[in-house]
Amino acid sequence: MRVSLKTLNFSNFKKAPIVSLQGQPVLLFTQQHTSLLMALEQKKVKLFSECRNGYCGACKTKIISGGVTYHTEPLVHLEKDECLPCCCTPNSDLDLELPTQGVTLTPKREENAKLIPQEQIKETQTVCTDNR
Fold first, then answer.
1. Rounded Cα distance, 24 and 20, in Å
2. Is the CB of residue 94 less than 8 Å from the CB of residue 20?
3. This prediction's pTM
4. Are the C-beta atoms of residues 86 and 37 closer than 8 Å to each other?
């Protein structure tokens, strides 16, 4: 079955959130990460944690911008600009107030990055979804 790119509906696709530390992109949060804490640890971000379930508040982190969704409701008091990475996932691009020391940073995208103009994309492009 061949499908034209013009008829595909991309509205169901959601951009994976970019997690930054003090404005420096560090990781792309994907479904392979079960929590923000696990994703940060995989990138060698130093963040103290104990219970890993939202009970103790040891991993409390200040949010500079963005938002999170909790998969376990935290039992500690949080200000509006704080999160517990052990029990949440980002629901948008997220910038945290954490040190970048020892972390491999992702280079920022250049403002003048080369994009392909829409006019140059062939109208006859098709996507093959089935080989029958």
1. 5
2. yes
3. 0.70
4. yes
Measure Cα distances from 102 to 19, 70, 78 in Å: 16, 27, 27
Q: How many CB atoms lie within 10 A of CB 90?
A: 24
Task: Please count the CA atoms within 13 angstroms of the CA of 62 that sit on its side-chain side.
Answer: 5
The model's pLDDT over 59-76, given as tens digits with 9 standing for 90+, comes to 999 999 999 999 999 999
**Token pair of 117 as six digits:** 């103009």
Q: Give the CA count within 13 Å in the CB-facing half-sphere of 9.
A: 2
Query: Distance between CA atoms of 39 and 18, rounded to whole angstroms?
Result: 11
Element of type H or E holding 68: strand 68-70
pLDDT, tens digit (0-9, with 9 covering 90-100), for 74-89: 999 999 999 999 999 9
* Distance in angstroms (rounded) separating the CA atoms of residues 36 and 93: 12
CA of residue 52 relative to chain centroid, distance:
19
